[in-house]
Amino acid sequence: xxxxxxxxxxxxxxxxxxxxxxxxxxxxxxxxxxxxxxxxxxxxxxxxxxxxxxxxxxxxxxxxxxxxxxxxxxxxxxxxxxxxxxxxxxxxxxxxxxxxxxxxxxxxxxxxxxxxxxxxxxxxxxxxxxxxxxxxxxxxxxxxxxxxxxxxxxxxxxxxxxxxxxxxxxxxxxxxxxxxxxxxxxxxxxxxxxxxxxxxxxxxxxxxxxxxxxxxxxxxxxxxxxxxxxxxxxxxxxxxxxxxxxxxxxxxxxxxxxxxxxxxxxxxxxxxxxxxxxxxxxxxxxxxxxxxxxxxxxxxxxxxxxxxxxxxxxxxxxxxxxxxxxxxxxxxxxxxxxxxxxxxxxxxxxxxxxxxxxxxxxxxxxxxxxxxxxxxxxxxxxxxxxxxxxxxxxxxxxxxxxxxxxxxxxxxxxxxxxxxxxxxxxxxxxxxxxxxxxxxxxxxxxxxxxxxxxxxxxxxxxxxxxxxxxxxxxxxxxxxxxxxxxxxxxxxxxxxxxxxxxxxxxxxxxxxxxxxxxxxxxxxxxxxxxxxxxxxxxxxxxxxxxx
Length: 547
Prior knowledge:
Blueprint: H1 4-11, H2 21-26, H3 48-64, H4 74-85, H5 95-106, H6 117-124, E1 133-137, E2 155-156, E3 159-160, E4 164-167, E5 172-176, E6 186-191, E7 198-207, E8 210-220, E9 229-235, E10 241-243, E11 248-250, E12 256-258, E13 266-274, E14 278-286, E15 294-305, E16 311-318, E17 337-338, E18 349-350, E19 357-359, E20 361-366, E21 376-381, E22 389-392, E23 410-418, E24 429-437, E25 439-446, E26 454-462, E27 469-476, E28 485-495, H7 521-531, E29 537-544
Parallel strand pairs: 16-29
Antiparallel strand pairs: 1-16, 2-3, 4-7, 5-6, 6-15, 7-14, 8-13, 8-15, 9-12, 9-14, 10-11, 17-18, 19-22, 20-21, 21-28, 22-27, 23-26, 23-28, 24-25, 24-27
Helix pairs in contact: 4-5
């Protein structure tokens, strides 16, 4: 199809002077690139009217094809994707790349190739560091797990509760507080050069007949290349051992070995058929060849029923480190607060303002606490009880300044707040939106009585007709004592009643380069349900690692 400029130049009367500047300014003489309307286009030489007509034709095509993401291009593709999930193009990303990122989150249809471990990991890598995502098929459900202290968090002295430790030679099993997969500790097997056996065992009483799954996470120090972890299961009725190769029980000792994983934890799972109700003793020991001392670590052991239906679990490890989460954030087009990530020395504020209004409060960037990134802002009450303290995230609290907000529009003021235990109470902390029409009116949200963890707090207000002033305020009530404090991070001011995903976009056009926002687990659950295979059960879980 010919462009508008080509058609115009073909059909203009021959008597018309096409070489003049007037003609060129109106109708143009050069091929137009239909990316932007004339007021922002760099293609001025295409002519004002021709430019607008070309843009109109492209826009009409966009409207006609809006139901099919495959059929639109350029800014019109961006408009459709922005409408659904507010995801932005990355720098000079091709349309095909933008479509693929969109499809990986939203569109699955009946393509069975989506139901692979790799596809699940790819989807969730938009939200989390891929190194911390584990995809587990046929996972052990919480109510079915028969292992006691499977995360090795309960200890007495140098021993793990509910586990029997046996060592020989110079091999030992210690409690590691630095190499765990989950929570705060795990077993560290230090095996001598003679490969003397060291083991942890546990007896599970009265295991019913049925199909079971045994799983664990393990890693090693990369010293040996042989299989490194050995698992045995022995039953009480006849002292038989389970043969994992034939899925039968036999009189002679037999076991299953797992390969080395290196310094990053890997997942291993195996099937067990229990054909007689019995006590089962699980024993986990070393399997490496002799001649070289080495270490390995195990954690998060599960033993439970193997369900008849397929299932998939997305397990994400969060160590609370900078860069742990990818950059999926309230984007610059949505967040009306500047520097809301609290990483800069200039205070987070509304729009282009930089100096908050403080009353009986100290307000400073703090590197000891952070919801994400490296910093938050610390609010400290700087007056004794009996008087309130406030921080206004606007540069004045005049009745005549709306600070860029608009009357009759609804706004969400959203923050993450961490309150230390033993200090200020959650009921003494509020976030507020004020507007002024003859007098100030306040909408506010008090914090929950939640301590030593980040909580999500949102207040919603529609500015009244005729409003002339507005304030965004953080407040410590008068009952709070001198020097009591709390931390703030992830500050957002967004038009409308905002959920956690609806208005999210890729922060600063960088979706793989840094730390990003966290959403409630139900958001990830919904995404998992969209991409899993029909008929399978799914589960999403974020676990912690103390660092």
